[in-house]
Amino acid sequence: MSGPESDFLRAAQERGYIHQVTDLAALDAKLRAGPVSAYIGFDVTADSLHVGHLMSIMLLRLFQRTGNRPVVLIGGGTTKVGDPSGKDEARQLLTEAIIEANKAGIRRSFAPFLAFGEGATEAVMLDNAAWLDELRYIPFLRDVGRHFSVNRMLTMDSVRLRLERDQPLSFLEFNYMLLQSYDFLELHRRHGVALQMGGSDQWGNIVMGADLVRRMAQQEAFGLTTPLLTTASGAKMGKTASGAVWLNPDRLAPYDYWQFWRNSEDGDVERFLALFTDLPMAEVRRLGALRGAEINEAKKVLATEATALLHGAEAAQTAAETARRAFEAGEAAETLPSIAHALPSTVVDLLAAAKLVGSKGEARRLVAQNGVRLNDAPVTDPLQPVTAADLRDGAAKLSLGRKRHVLVRAG
Known about the structure:
411 residues; Rossmann fold; globular; Tyrosyl-Transfer RNA Synthetase
């Protein structure tokens, strides 16, 4: 076929969301025929999602914006098992109390991106614990397990790679693909879901789920995966020296989220604008074509648009203005992130306390590389004391490079 005709697949392909589809032509026809329900599953291993989940969230957003119904599946049940995909070892099992707390936090991650409700194209959030916790083992094996070939399961990357590395794979984890496939079947039965989407590492599980729906419900079912996302330099998307880039504001301030996008590599700007903003593709291509110093303006647009989607336009503009004052006007803006710390202290201790670095060893290396400033003055000694005399209007500005700053207050 020359290219998809449905609004969703055409836009998803143009913006770079599509890696694999089980039957592109048939899915395109189904989408053209009317609203389709599709889901993506999210296990609840933390109390917030992070930027590594953002492509999936934005894909659900695009799905809704093109007239379809997104289903967010919270893995209250599957989290108790642990997905072996992409893992070198078994995931730590969480208690029921932690899982419940994490579910509440993750629900907040979706609110800015999707419109929830009861309408035909309004998003719904479900928890697979509703059916997985009630499963009876023998009936499940008889009804569902008989459709799975162990020979085929052993060829799936999530299993094969662990076995090739001679790393242990528990029977608990081996069951994960059965449970994920069963999720698809239950969502089809209960909510008419016809499409499962997810990251490229989920392809095997998604194909097996679509196959289970066809076998047990005698209905067509589809799968779609997004490409593995790395930065232009090959680094894993969403990771920094100080850890994950969280979506919930209680885990990461809007200013720091803005800075994450502002610090994108030049080669990533056009791709990130397409994936992580709602800007029209004509504007995305115009910004992506900028070169030299002008690319920094495109990065600011990326940062402001991405931050506005998550935290709102006001927070995004505040972050942009804070950055302008801090970087271009050289001011210690009051809206910069701040920490309270007992003074006197050393520069290396404050860098670690502010989480500007992953370790004190990294802080010492950055000082040696002339990458640290205190109140805009270069720091040459990692053990340089910071005292009350260094405070300006109640705070000292500690800077890592040109783009990361924190205000240190006595506390």
